[in-house]
Design brief:
seven-stranded mixed β-sheet; six-stranded mixed β-sheet
Length: 517
């Protein structure tokens, strides 16, 4: 009996020691190599998501500002963002806000944008959709070395093509975009028609525990995850705010209003503008030819895509623009449209009503077209977008059965006309984004497009769909072409478009920890 009692006491002491050790591990788990940037601040635990770590030394995020001029500085740094009354946790920011500042340039303007890195991990900036020289594209290990903590890099380019674009980190982007490293960049056309109100809405989704999806899958910082929402995006935001915390869009009767929709997340959002007829005037920065008015149709905005819509404020009252994704989270992706000086009619979001989707491939009118299905092309390439599980049980997203960096590059010469057939043989969407170029969509599921010539840089290919696209190789370099559901890209759905004879202007630094996705 004495021996048994001694063993029981010893066991209790071991359990107590292990508990103390775990507590110390949690208290000291602020590891700068795997920054838990979406855990929450220590204050007001009953209202806030995430862990019990003390982030009281971090500043709160500030309102998103506009930046203009020929010399701009963007600083990557950490802050705490209040999403709504219940969710507040650390994020990674550009200039202390989520989204980062709206960069406004004029067509033909040359700009120097200096990225300063005050984060504990390397970062870069990629100018999504905006054609820039290859050396300025911001893909670590492909066009540059990642910018190390405490260092800076100045991007230099001319804004040649007007439109709505966005910028984001391309270093470990599946996680760094998830943490908030993105913002809008708008190039105003030389002869652009002015509007009375111009709003930019960046759509995103987060896990309310403050942890990125990849961190969850890998088990990193697992002590900070709430059990109820592990592995899900359950916090939808517009411009970094959710639900009632989203500022209203103020208009006056008679205003011509432009709304720029940018999907910075990894889920397609189906956007509904209440109470007004509207036109889609551009997609991915490229104009739609003679767009017609539509009403009560959903605009499917896939990851990486942009849609510019315009409407006349001719229906005074309070209305909404919201997402119809048919899940619990979409009820918080909603912004009020408020007529100043009007108390008429308060609209109510109706998430149960099924509305038709706008088919952008049939929208607008036929116009001048640079490419056709039957013309001669210098390069023809077919991309089967699939998925495979290897012998170790790891899931890979593939192009023609291979995953990056084993995928076969598309080799081109400067001036080549390139035709690509995209076939989705998987069971999930793949929004495919081409760097450095825009392409024209020529056909969908074997049928030529019937609407406006459709020029894009990101195209969502749903399961079973087949698209044919074309572009001219007019921007020499080594370019990425990848799925912008970045979990898929990180798992292999990437390919290189390589110009023959091109030599990059940098040397890969093996110590830079370059992670292109």
């Amino acid at each position: 009996m004495k021996k048994l009692g001694f063993i029981m006491i010893l066991s209790i002491l071991v359990i107590i020691a292990a508990a103390c050790s775990n507590a110390n591990d949690k208290a000291n788990s602020h590891d700068t190599s795997n920054m838990d940037s979406k855990s929450t601040e220590n204050s007001d635990h009953s209202q806030m998501s995430g862990s019990q770590k003390d982030y009281s030394n971090l500043p709160m995020t500030t309102a998103t500002k506009e930046l203009a001029g020929n010399n701009i500085t963007i600083t990557a740094k950490e802050a705490v963002n209040s999403f709504d009354s219940k969710h507040k946790f650390p994020v990674w920011t550009f200039n202390g806000s989520v989204p980062g500042p709206i960069i406004k340039l004029k067509q033909g303007q040359t700009v120097n944008i200096t990225l300063k890195n005050e984060l504990p991990q390397p970062v870069t900036i990629h100018w999504h959709g905006l054609p820039v020289p290859n050396s300025q594209d911001g893909v670590p290990g492909v066009t540059m070395n990642s910018v190390q903590p405490g260092h800076s890099f100045t991007y230099h380019f001319t804004a040649t093509v007007p439109g709505t674009y966005w910028y984001h980190s391309h270093q470990d982007s599946v996680n760094q975009i998830d943490k908030g490293l993105y913002g809008a960049i708008i190039v105003e056309g030389a002869n652009e028609e002015k509007v009375d109100k111009d709003y930019t809405l960046m759509l995103d989704e987060w896990n309310s525990s403050g942890i990125t999806m990849d961190e969850m899958k890998s088990g990193k910082n697992h002590t900070d995850m709430n059990g109820d929402n592990m592995g899900t995006y359950d916090l939808y935001t517009i411009n970094g705010k959710s639900g009632d915390s989203i500022p209203p869009l103020k208009v006056r009767k008679g205003d011509k209003v432009r709304i720029r929709l940018i999907n910075a997340g990894y889920i397609t959002h189906y956007i509904h503008l209440h109470g007004h007829a509207f036109k889609v005037v551009a997609t991915d920065g490229n104009p739609i030819h003679n767009p017609q008015l539509v009403k009560n149709k959903l605009i499917p905005v896939a990851p990486g895509e942009r849609y510019d819509i315009e409407f006349t404020a001719d229906h005074p009252g309070t209305w909404y623009i919201d997402s119809h994704d048919h899940n619990k989270a979409d009820k918080n992706m909603v912004a009020k449209i408020v007529y100043e000086g009007s108390n008429r009619h308060t609209d109510k979001p109706d998430y149960k009503t099924s509305l038709p989707q706008l088919d952008i491939t049939k929208y607008g009118e036929k116009g001048p077209s640079r490419f056709t299905l039957n013309q001669k092309y210098d390069v023809n390439y077919t991309m089967d977008l699939g998925v495979k599980v290897d012998k170790k049980g790891t899931t890979h997203y593939t192009i023609n059965g291979k995953y990056y960096p084993k995928t076969d590059p598309i080799y081109v010469n400067k001036g080549d006309l390139v035709k690509i057939t995209l076939r989705n043989i998987s069971t999930v969407d793949h929004p495919m984004h081409l760097h450095g170029h825009s392409f024209q969509v020529l056909s969908k599921n074997g049928k030529p497009l019937t609407g406006s010539p459709l020029i894009k840089d990101t195209l969502n290919v749903k399961p079973g769909e087949v698209y044919v696209i074309a572009f001219q190789a007019n921007n020499p370099g080594d370019w990425m072409y990848h799925c912008h559901e970045l979990h898929h890209a990180a798992a292999g759905m990437m390919i290189d478009v390589k110009y023959r004879g091109f030599k990059p202007s940098f040397k890969v630094d093996p110590n830079a920890d370059n992670r292109p996705e």
